[in-house]
Structure formats: C-alpha cells, structure tokens
Amino acid sequence: MFSALLLRGLLAASVLSMAACGPTTKVVSDPYDASKIELKSPPATLSTQRHTGPFAAGNALNFDAQLKPLDPAPIKYVQLDTSHKVIEIAPGVKFSAWTFGNQVPGPTVRARVGDKIHFSMTNRSDEMLPAMSMVVAPMMHSMDFHAAMVSPQDKYRSIAPGQTIEFEFTVNYPGIFMYHCGTPMILEHIASGMYGAVIVEPKEGYPTKADREYVVIQSEFYVKPDPAGHKVDGAPIYVLDADRLKASQPTYTVFNGVHNGMVKKPLVAKPGERVRLFVLNVGPSKTSSFHVVGTIFDRVWLEGNPDNQMRGMQTVLLGSSNSAIVEMMVPEAGSYIMVDHHFANASQGAIGLISTLDQAKPADLEHHNMEASSTPTDPAAMSGKMAFESKCLACHSIGQGKKLGPDLAGVTLRRKDEWLTQWLMAPEKMLQSDPTAKALLADANNIAMPNQGLSKAEIAQYIAYFHWVDAHKVAKP
Amino acid sequence: MKYTLHALLFASAIALAPLAALACGHCLEDRIASVYDHSAVERAKLQKHTLMYLVWDGPLTHDAATRRWLVRTVAAVPGVVAGSVRVSLEPPTIALAFDAARTKAAALESALQGSLAYRGATASSLPTTTATAAAP
C-alpha cells in the first residue's frame, strides 16, 4: 500500500516537473549578434601621394552590369579615385560628370560578410581634359560607404585635389549598399555621378542558385546645355542644372548611367534560367517602382539581405538609397522589360531589357506603349522641352487634352512655323488681325495668351521641341 | 598656431582637431569644401599667401544680401588679399587669403571679429595646422 502510494506520488511529481519545464527551447544564434560584429577600424590616413594610372583597381571590382563571381580573398583592396570627365548619358548629350573610378556609376564592389575592405582614394579632380576645365573646377570630394560602420568624421572626410585617403572597415551585414560622395553640396555631387554599389553576400552565400547575376543602378540626371556654349568634340557640353536639381525635375532617369542603355545592350538570359538582379536606386531624389514586364519576382530580398524575404512580387518600391535583390525565372524566349513603373521615369530612360535575343526588336517596347526615348537629344529641342515644362504646363498640355489653352500635340501639323513664331513673339498683335488667333481666343473664353517676352532663339527652341514631339508622337492627342 | 605654406596644402582638407561633428556638412572638411576654390589655392601657393578658413555665426539672415555684406566686410579687413574672400551661407563658412609675412593670423582674426561685431556676428578660425599633419 505504502509502495503504491509512493509510486503514484513519484509519478505525479515527475508529471508536474515536466509540465513546469515545458518543451525544450532551442537557442538560435543571431548572425547579427553584437559580439560577432567587427567594429574595429584603424584611423583613416591622409597623404599627398597620388595614385597614377587607372582610376580604379582591385579584384573585387565589377565594371559593368554583369557581375563576376565573388573574389574569395578575405581582404578586398579597393582603389576608387575621383575624376571629372565627360560622359555620354544619351545620344549627343555629353555631360560634365564627377566620378568614382572614372565611370558612372562607379564600379561595383563585391564582398562577403566578414571581409575587410581596404579602401584607397586619390582626389584626381585636378586631372582634367581642357574641355572639362572650362566648365568645372577641381574640388574637394569624399567617400561615404553605406556598407561600413565607422565614424563619418574620420573616414568620410573631404579631401582636396591631390590628396589620398585610406581606411579599412569590415562588412557586417549582407546587402546592396550605396556609396557616394558626401561633400557639400551632396545633392550636386550625387547628381553629377558620384555613386556606386557595394554588394555584400551572406557568409554562407545566397540560399538559391542563380544562372545570371547583374547589377542595375537607377539614378537621375539634371542637365542643361552649358550656358557659356562650351563644346566638346564639336558637340555642346551639358552641365548640371541646379534649378531642376533643387526642384527634383530630372531630365533623364536611367539604369546604369545611360538613357535606355540596356535597351541597346540587353542583359542576356536563356529560357528557363534564374536571373538575379541586384537593384539599387541611388536617386538622388526620386523613388523607383522597379518592375520587370513578363515575369514575377520569385524572391525579393529587400536591401539585398535574404533575411528580408518576400515572395511572388510584381514590383519592388525603392526609395533613394534603397536596394533589393530580385530573382525571377525567364519563362520563355523573349525580351523582358525592366522599367521604373513610375512611367514618367521610364519615359526619361529608366528602361532596359533582359533578353533571350542578341538584339531586341523595337516592337518589344512599343507593345507596352513605352517609347524608347521621349526626351529630345537635339540641344535646341531639349532646351525647348525644358522651357515648356517649366513655363507652359500651367495652361497647355502635350497630348493630355485642352487646359486653359489648347493641347499642343500636333501643333506643327496644324500651323506653319512662321505662324507659330509670330504668335509666340507677339500674341497681342496677332489677336488684332489674325482669324486663327481670334478663334483661339474665343475657344479660351477670351483669356488671351500673355506675351512671354521670348527671344527669337527661345522661340526657335520651342518650335524645335514641338516638331520633335510631333515627329515622335510622344503623346497622342 | 602658425599658418605656413605647408599648412596651406593641408588646411584645405585635413581635420586635426576633433571638432564637434554633428552631421553632414558640419564637420571641418565639409565646411572647408563649401568654400574651397582650387584656383585660390594655386594662386596662394604662387604668391606665398596663407589661406584661413573660419566659421561665422550670428543673427544674420541666410540670404544673398548677407553673403554680399560678409564678403565686403571680410575683404575690408586689413591684410586680407583682395579678391580672395569666399562665403558660404550653409554651412556658414568664410575663406580668405592673407600674407603671413605682413599680418599675423591672430591679429587678422581679431580685426575681423571687430568688423563683424557691428551686426552681432562672430567668426572663429577652423583648426587647420601642420602640427600633427603626417605628410608622408
């Protein structure tokens, strides 16, 4: 009897004991545990020993959209010198750019969590071609790596032309990180081309296997023909348009530094392949709605970190300096169109192709009603476009219907250049005698178009733009 | 603090004293970058002048009229090289050149303080020196 009671008591105690303990808890290690993150970084060093020769060097660098496999070395030596050079951002648009590594975007750095980056940069903005020195002076520059965890006042300090800065840091988080010049005015330095990407792979690699890897960097350009009329190789040189920059009104929005660049030179893939895109929006001021027509993102790793995973996405929204890895299958032969689904941005050049064909057909784009170019490249027409968009849109549209004044799509088909010139020169005089002008006034509820005080050259630019619109049918009335 | 030609080469970019660094545009080199003029550096080298960078402060409106007033006021200080003054409103910074053989930096700064005090403004030179600049 006593034994039976004792046994029951022991059983009960053991049940209670088990209930109190509950199921065994497995401790999961945090890869971002502060104790595992390397924060030690020696002070930056400055010298006047200049780099010479190439403006960029290092096995971890990638100079094009196509990415090389990761260099296994645990220390990545990265040299990215600053330069000022002319780049062609659209056909005929030669822009006075400021660069890292003598290209825009700067070379892509590829590393792995735990790697050490040994960075070195000479400010070589004083090594310019004569054409450049006419429009821009040597200036101070700096480097800000979003991939680093360091004191900005030590590592990201601005250096003068001829100086070299060197520093080290360890990459602790996987992702796609922007780098850019952080010297005031930062907006101008980024908009002039001083940006690039650092790709940091997880320590164990990515959880999927991709057949193709490409980097796509979206950015904006704000340009105008040099007011002083300087030229390079006989063509007008374009300079930063500070007014448009401050108003966030880009003239071009592009992938990898070139208007419609990856339309002419598509990213190659085969049917059935898995494509991994490292997408970074560097802005400086616009958001990207990155989308690929014809497929779905199987996986999206926000900021390029597989811990931030989303599945089956159509579009990924990237603010300025946001990034994502997107992976997709190429379902069948064709050209898959990368766009910023803010179509105003796409129409400025943020468009490209992932194609199973060597050369994409124009119809691939027209199918989606996306013009390959909706920005004129002729300087006069481009100036006219800028003037129209800044002064005329309150009362007129191009292909969007009548506002206070008429829709100007097709205006060069309805009126002769002479008539348009006279009208723009002195509308009040035309209204006294010209029957067409009088009819326009009646149609606008007798609200006359004010005399804009335009010069002949400005009028010629407007008319060049209207001709370009009608030739390209940018927007249909 | 002695300002020399050697200092000129480094004054443009090297932070030696840890300034209160608050954010972008507030650290020493960012302030210098806002008024940096490469041609002025080259000219100062040729003429053996010294560049001085200062932070200005005071109850002044940050507009074009203030910039003009600051340029005029600084340029009128004895010892400041004609045409060498550059003023940034944001970050509030002044650059000037002077002949160290004829004018002491401290005397120039003191005279500048007196001129700016008229409108309640102040200016203090940025700590750029050769003392610990380790040029290789």
Query: What distance lies between the first and last C-alpha atoms of chain A, to the nearest angstrom?
Result: 101 Å
CATH fold-level label of chain B: Alpha-Beta Plaits
CATH topology of the largest domain in chain A: Immunoglobulin-like
Question: Can you write the helix and strand succession of chain B as a string?
Answer: HHHEHEEHE
Number of strands of chain A: 26
CATH architecture of chain B: 2-Layer Sandwich
* Residues in β-strands, percent of chain A: 25-35%
Structural class determined from secondary elements of chain A: alpha+beta
Describe the overall structure.
Chain A has 477 residues and is an alpha+beta fold. Chain A has 3 domains: 38-204, Cupredoxins -  blue copper proteins (Immunoglobulin-like), CATH 2.60.40; 215-366, Immunoglobulin-like; 379-472, Cytochrome c-like domain (Cytochrome Bc1 Complex, Chain D, domain 2). Chain A contains 14 helices and 26 strands. Chain A has a 6-stranded mixed β-sheet, with no helix packed on it. Chain A is globular and about 85 Å long. The model of chain A is unreliable at 15-21 and 366-373 (pLDDT under 50). Chain B has a single domain, classed as Alpha-Beta Plaits (2-Layer Sandwich), CATH 3.30.70.100. Chain B contains 5 helices and 4 strands; from the N terminus they run αααβαββαβ. Chain B has helices at 5-11, 28-35, 38-47, 64-75, 105-116, and strands at 50-57, 86-88, 93-98, 122-125. Chain B has a 4-stranded antiparallel β-sheet with strand order 2-3-1-4, sandwiched between helices. In chain B, strand 2 and strand 3 (93-98) form a beta hairpin. The longest helix of chain B is centred in the middle third of the chain and has 12 residues, at 64-75. Chains A and B meet through strand 1 of A and helix 2 and helix 3 of B.
